[in-house]
Amino acid sequence: MKKQSATRDAYGKTLASLRDPNIVVLDADLSESTRTSFFAEKHPERFFEMGISEANMMGVAAGLATCGKNVFVSTFGVFATTRALDQIRQSICYADLDVKICATHCGLTVGEDGATHQAIEDISIMRTLANMEVIVPADAHEAGQVTQFLEKHKGPVYVRLGRNKYFNMHENPRLRHRRYYNARFRFGKAQILKEGKEATIIACGYMVTKALMAAEKLAHENIHVGVINMSTIKPIDKEAILKCPKPILTVEEGLVNGGLGSAVAEVLCEDFIDFSKKPMLKRMGVYNEFAESGKAEELLKKYGLTHDDIVAEMKNLLL
User: Fold this and answer.
1) Best label site of 99, 174, 231, 268, fewest CB within 10 Å?
2) What are the residues facing 286 on neighbouring strands?
């Protein structure tokens, strides 16, 4: 696998390789972008192009699921989670149907497409829905594993995929100890990628590699922090959150309101309150605003989400 590749690419290629004959795939006029075109090429009889009609597509997906089909639905994250929200809630989640919504072009790193296409609130929306589970692969390697997992998994799932090319953690030359960073997806379980006694960075998706780079830079300054890949955000791994060294810094390329940071905060507030110590949590992400158009890395810099920003926030948290 190349040193940089997009999670949407791994999803599309892996989806096309799945053997379950009950799998059907629906797309909303974006199959080239979502990479479901790989499946369409290999299994044209089980691929349905629904046109620019996302709400209708979710309704059709629900109908196919009631007939015993294993349904994968793809479109851009912003269209899946806002334009088709009513149908997802009423037709898919309420009936607890076997529909996997694998949305691409999510997060701040959509870049030049700008605020209208940056799905930064998708995690917040999807994790509030009853019966819906939420997964955010950290790199292409893990995205392939997630897609394989979905072949046999039952019930509604939202998978957040990116357009921008990620470093594959197991092949990243910018991470010195990359043998420790293999992403091994286990549903509902966090991956402890780096041990550290002083604090912990919990990240998801594109920001996991940034977190690892920040942790290595901090180690050069004799500050040893752990890094956790929280690829399953719902159901979240409470045990990992409660056991990891405090304080915690959460990092995500989306809204902090209702996102990964909020999910971690909920666990801490319900199960681990100790106000006698320093603050145990700081959330990094986009705060209550729409972002803007620009190159992915430039946007991460503007909104304070580079690995240097993570280093600075961790130092502030440890003071």
Assistant:
1) 174
2) 255
Q: How far apart are the first and last CA of the chain?
A: 41
| Cβ atoms 176, 22 nearer than 8 A | no
- Which CATH number goes with the domain that contains 55? 3.40.50.970
* Range of the structural domain that residue 233 is part of: 168-318
Residue that finishes a domain, picked among 166, 183, 199: 166
Supply angle C-alpha 57, 7, 78, rounded to 5.
40
Structure tokens at 292: 């803007």
Q: Which of 41, 54, 171, 270 is catalytic?
A: 54
Using one digit for the tens of pLDDT, what is the confidence trace for 277-290? 666 788 888 876 77
Count other C-beta atoms under 10 Å from residue 87's C-beta. 19
DSSP string, 171-215: G-TTSTTGGG------TT--EEEE--SSEEEEE-TTHHHHHHHHH
For the entire predicted model, the pTM comes to 0.87
